[in-house]
Specification:
Layout: H1 8-19, E1 32-37, E2 44-52, E3 55-64, H2 67-80, H3 85-99, H4 126-142
Antiparallel strand pairs: 1-2, 2-3
Helix pairs in contact: 1-2, 2-4, 3-4
Bound molecules: FE2/S2 (inorganic) cluster.
Length: 143
């Protein structure tokens, strides 16, 4: 089965984020910077984000990678903006559970992220989808 077998609507959402990425760029000043590679392919992401009063005030990403990794980064930055650090980390756990095909906590609105659910059927692509989330977790935990 290939990526093209993903549900059409979900695929459209993924391709929209890939072609029109939200929050693409680099934050300057007091932002946190995290660089991470996907070891299986060498693709990379740079995530910059700014925390204020325990919340994600802003987040941007740069990088090179496949449609799944870049759309996931776009969705992730969109989802965590304005969230508390605790909720951003909770979303990361939810996303990880989703990728592993487990039941996941539905108490937070996941928005477009749900479009990536189908990636759980393609084990080789799960690291693509989780790359941006792992970078975010790393940054939060180092803060
Ligand atoms: Fe490299 Fe997806 S193939 S991140």
């Amino acid at each position: 089965m290939s990526f093209n077998n993903l549900d059409t609507l979900y695929r459209q959402v993924i391709m929209d984020h890939y072609k029109n990425p939200r929050n693409k760029g680099v934050l300057e000043d007091d932002s946190l910077t995290v660089n991470m590679n996907n070891p299986t392919c060498g693709d990379r992401i740079q995530l910059t984000f700014k925390l204020e009063d325990g919340k994600v005030a802003d987040a941007k990403f740069e990088g090179e990678g496949c449609s799944i990794s870049m759309s996931s980064a776009s969705m992730m930055t969109q989802a965590i903006k304005g969230k508390t650090v605790e909720d951003a980390l909770k979303m990361s756990t939810i996303f990880s559970d989703m990728m592993l095909g487990k039941d996941y906590d539905e108490s937070l609105d996941l928005g477009d992220i749900e479009a990536l659910q189908g990636v759980s059927q393609f084990p080789a692509r799960i690291k693509c989808a989780t790359l941006a989330w792992k970078a975010m977790e790393k940054g939060m935990k180092e803060e």
